[in-house]
Amino acid sequence: MEGLLAQLCGTDAARPLPLWEGDTTGHCFTQLVLSALPHALLAVLSACHLGTPRTTNHSPALNPGWRLRLAASFLLSIFPLLDLLPVVLPPGSRPGPLWLEVLAGCVTAVAWFTHSLALWALVHSPHGRSRGPLALALAAFLPTPALVLTLLWHCQRGTFLPPLLPGPLGRVCLLILQLAAVLAYGLGWAAPGGPQEPWTHDPFLSSESQETEVAEDGESWLSRFSYAWLAPLLARGVRGELQQPRDTCRLPRRLHPAFLARVFQAHWKEGAQLWRALYRAFGCCYLALGLLKMVGTMLGFSGPLLLSLLVGFLEEGQEPLSHGLLYVLGLAGGTVISAVLQNQYGYEVRKVTLQARVAVLSTLYRKALKLGPSRPPTGEVLNLLGTDSERLLNFAGSFHEAWGLPLQLAITLYLLYQQVGMAFLAGLVLALLLVPVNKVIATRIMASNQEMLRHKDARVKLMTELLSGIRVIKFFRWEQALGDRVKACRTKELGRLRVIKYLDAACVYLWAALPVVICITIFITYVLMGHQLTATKVFTALALVRMLILPLNNFPWVINGLLESKVSLDRIQRFLDLPSYSPEAYYSPDPPAEPSTALELHEALFSWDPIGASQKTFISHLQVKKGMLVGIVGKVGCGKSSLLAAITGELHRLCGWVAVSELSKGFGLATQEPWIQCATIRDNILFGKTFDAQLYREVLEACALNDDLSILPAGDQTEVGEKGVTLSGGQRARIALARAVYQEKALYLLDDPLAAVDADVANHLLHRCILGVLSHTTRLLCTHRTEYLERADVVLLMEAGQLVRTGPPSEILPLVQAVPTAWAEKEQVATSGQSPSVCDLERTTEEELEVEQSTCGCLVQEESKSEGAVALHVYRAYWRAMGSGLAAAILVSLLLMQATRNGADWWLAHWLSQLKAGRNGSREDPASCSPGSTALFSPRLLLFSPGNLYTPLLSTPLHKAASNGTADVHFYLIVYATIAGVNSLCTLLRAVLFAAGALQAAASLHHRLLHRLLMAPVTFYDSTPSGRVLNRFSSDVACVDDSLPFLLNILLANSVGLLGLLAVLGSGLPWLLLLLPPLSFVYYSVQGYYRASFRELRRLGSLTWSPLYSHLADTLAGLPVLRAAGATYRFEEENQRLLELNQRCQFASYATMQWLDIRLQLMGAAVVSAIAGIALVQHQQGLANPGLVGLVLSYALSLTGLLSGLVSSFTQTEAMMVSVERLEEYSCDVPQEPHSQPLQSPHQQRISWLTQGSVEFQDVVLVYRPGLPNALDGVTFRVEPGEKLGIVGRTGSGKSSLFLVLFRLLEPNAGRVLLDNVDTSQLELAELRSQLAVIPQEPFLFSGTIRENLDPQGLHEDRALWQALEQCHLSEVAVAMGGLDGELGERGQNLSLGQRQLLCLARALLTDAKILCIDEATASVDQKTDQLLQQTICKRFANKTVLTIAHRLNTILNSDRVLVLQAGRVVELDSPSALRNQPHSLFQQLLQSSQQGAHSGPSGC
Fold this sequence. Notes:
Elements: H1 2-9, E1 20-21, E2 24-25, H2 27-48, H3 64-83, H4 98-123, H5 134-141, H6 144-157, H7 166-190, H8 221-226, H9 231-238, H10 257-265, H11 274-300, H12 302-316, H13 321-369, H14 378-393, H15 395-420, H16 424-468, H17 470-475, H18 479-528, H19 535-547, H20 549-576, H21 583-586, E3 597-607, E4 616-625, E5 629-634, H22 640-648, E6 652-660, E7 668-670, H23 681-686, H24 693-702, H25 706-711, H26 729-742, E8 747-751, H27 759-773, E9 778-782, E10 794-799, E11 802-807, H28 809-812, H29 847-852, H30 872-882, H31 884-918, H32 937-941, H33 966-1014, H34 1018-1023, H35 1026-1068, H36 1076-1117, H37 1119-1125, H38 1128-1180, H39 1186-1229, H40 1242-1248, E12 1255-1262, E13 1272-1279, E14 1284-1289, H41 1295-1302, E15 1310-1315, E16 1318-1319, H42 1325-1329, E17 1332-1335, H43 1346-1350, H44 1358-1367, H45 1371-1376, H46 1393-1406, E18 1411-1415, H47 1423-1436, E19 1441-1445, H48 1449-1453, E20 1457-1462, E21 1465-1470, H49 1472-1477, H50 1482-1496
Parallel strand pairs: 5-9, 5-10, 7-8, 8-9, 14-19, 14-20, 17-18, 18-19
Antiparallel strand pairs: 1-2, 3-4, 3-6, 10-11, 12-13, 12-15, 15-16, 20-21
């Protein structure tokens, strides 16, 4: 090496690279070190910018600065080549040897040519509007000192003095021209550039039409390795422009969901094993990364080994210089290559993880679209999407570690064998003995994990139901009861989590304490084998055993990750193995035999479960001709809806066959419970179909929606909220019907669309829609309002799941009507069992929200997102949640743990100094009295640990010199073992305390969130999609439970580790602390630049999860409608679009993590390499102190590793704290229902304040938002105790607002409400609602038993429950389901809609409330049952005050008085007979129109 260098430079082999020649630097040193190396760096940096994405618009005009820089760069690439021409002249005319000049000139020319190309690329990118990257410009000036020094060299050589030789003079002229070109380049860079082009026009951003560039694709390999392509994204993050998912860069082609779905589907088929399909799709690429992992792992050992060799070279001083140079270059190169390889490995593994993630999530959604009748609860499916998919994909990071860590272990053990021989087996046996212990722990963790996930499923499912029925829960004051159920699930979940956390703590403690125990065991064995312990053996063994910490500590986590992946894989596989909806297998492949037949069923038996255990539906034979109107009637729960579900394929067909004509065109389906999307009314009706203005107008008219749209603030552009929350029941039914009609199908299945509307609207729907627009189609209509079936072609009578009669209406209808032909007698309206109702009086469930919406019609606001660093109050909130005392104890235990660890290091240093003092003059330390060399062994022997290794302190030898006898060794070992034991106890204490603190924080944060949300007003839920709330209860809570404590633990360990290292540095080598400020500044700048983007990307990632949750929940709710309309493909595309937005944020956050990692790694490598290089130069000058150099190198290695870990763990912890921030946002900022002051005499008045039941409204005004019209405008009336009051009025008249104000779900702006002369605003909400009862129009049931649904608070005996069921005609159903403990299923799915309404009525029968509010709750029951129920209500509540929002006239005309509302005012209040006798009363007009509606039904018969 020296010879080659001497030959290249023309120097002596003893000094091949002289630093000084005369009064200036050596020419060879100048050309190689000061010129060639900076030019090589310039070439590399320039190459990184060659792939800079171009702008999409036309090329901008070059400003003068860019032109000057381009021209200067091009000239600087030409001049070195011209400079080579004088080289051919005689030797005297050139300053250095031939090949040195050729090498330097070629490197310079290539560098500037590459730089010219890079500038050209930057000019045509958004950088063209500014000066471009600063780093690139600074690199261009790095070679300038070499030019200046070469010019000085010429001056010293007298090149300008006569005789002037043409060769040297020409070279000087070219040198001056090069300096001038560099100056011109500087002026070009200094010229003012315009403001940087806004990135909103960048192809990385904004609308799809402009997004032509894709992240990473098309970039150079240098740009990929350095992540230079991320610069625009990071710049936007620093400027605060990462506001929405589209602000991130587009996905590379290999990560796009559409591409990945195609790749995965090629290997996936129904019933296949998920892991096999994933392996076939992505396995080869993933396994190939193992090679990268292995090379990176092997190179990881090069650093410590080469450092040891370098210290040996400096210490011995006998090896040639070339060896030292090779060690330094090997150290630098090995560290850099290892950093790049390991970084690329991490990046590629994350990319494979993202690929598999899209495949899994797409497959889950596709399966959800194909689910058969046996469907898991929505909460469980959401958990598969949020929790299990993430845990499954942790496999990607764990698998390669599972073999990589044992490889590191094997290499370390081999090196240990080299030091202590067979004694290392004693330590190995001890380590192996802990494996079965670890196996037991891992098995317990896995079992607890499965149980915890089951409890989590139950909790999320319960929350889903709770959110869907929050209005009824508040009416019935069940917040406490259902909140307790959620808390019970959470307690069970935390119980399993507690087991997991403490087992994890035990696992970590065992492996953390293991190295010390292994060391002591090895040393004792070594002595017993008859060997003499020496400092060399002790410290080398300690260093090597410390290298075992990483693989031994990480291995349990890796195994745990693999086990968790297996658990989640099994859960996902079970979901994927559920029976699928298969039209090909369900329907007969042949159409009906007769062309005129639309539908035919023969000997068909159906059930909701595949084995027929639930109620069956049997159709012996049914043939429906094309164009017929078929009515389906029967008692509640007889199987009417099941028949329609059987036709649409939503049941299991056990036998027989079903044939449908033109099956591929699908069905027009209007379900009994209307399914409405969170979108505008127009979007709900169009349902993905192209807008046809003429057809759209016809559909609106046919479905009687024009009047409703004229009331709504933005017409058909009004957003209706999740599940149509801002609409009345009738409006939802009509929009669902309009959606079906707009699809223009041949076969329509209409499940009771007339139940929720009044007689006039029902009449309109019958004549304009069912008999009008749909007259040319085949229609099957289920209804209890039999008066509207007189025009049917045929009527089917269902009973107990069987089709018992088929015939014309005149035969079938009398069998089910309460009073036949009730419409025949006009004068018997008041007493007949028929139910005429008031024109256009359907209830508006959410009148307040209809008004509350802004004129743009937008109800649901974009989810808010915090910006900037995670605020300090979030950390304080987590501290408080953990408990101040517990948090302080954790910090104290951490500091004690670090102090004892440093104490152990100090004791080792003291032992070494005593050994060296006792062996003064030995060959190993001829200068033991020198303070600088007292720790000579420590750097040499402790360099094997690449991180978190604290080299012993440089301690002054004590006055007492110790011998190296065995007794002394034993003494030092005992003291060391004692200190290590104390450290072990502190470690255990810290692990246990931290587990307890994490559990306390998890419990506290969830409790606060749940309590706050249960106390939120209904307006919050109406404007907040449930997906947002569920996202917090699922993903964010899971993060607080698991991910955050794990990362916070690492952060705290790194922090106290850094404090301990700084303490060692400050006492051992104080001058080294001078390097910390600049190093800290660089680290802080890099991580600050990174954190600004990563924070926002993490938030955007959380933000884009919520729509995925909502979309999946929405899909599961509307599955029959989707499939009937053939919209599954469109919904799958929407899922891919939402998934792409989330994938963008995930990919960008992963890429930014790797961007930070490579920079921190390279900075650490640069620090170590620079110190090694300086040491080599000092060694050549005879100034190096080997011991000091070794210390510096080992400290540098530990310090950079710790700083990297600290930045990384802090950033990831901050990202996880976003989950705490989101929980705190809802725990603190969600509005709360008002809490009133207690009454003056709480004991007496609270018991007896409502004894009679009078209700009085006094000038009540309700305004939902300033500037909007009054919903209630000075309403005044009084209801006497025991009085029955009917409430009627048109849509938007304020009927529902009365109930909302009465129950204080909304607070009035003026006026007051009195109950028995007590102002309700002075009462606590629970106190008020406990005295009121409500029967809602829409039934709400939650999963659980009949008992839990009837009496959630457990206040009544079984006898009372059975009595209520008997009165509601549900006792037989309850017995068939297994009595009061029979399960109802999710949202009561085991009951028909009518049976659910009856069960809600049974609740009201149990109440002791003095005031009952009824919102016509029997719309979905047959007329005979309805008549009996009305009699039951009249009898049961005879002495109670009853307020009824009327839909059927029998509930009004039997009332004592009727209240008529119009535009929020009371216009009439009198008895029904008095109002009917007033010829111009509004009530009389409504009554007349309702009678006309009733008569028009059969008029055509």
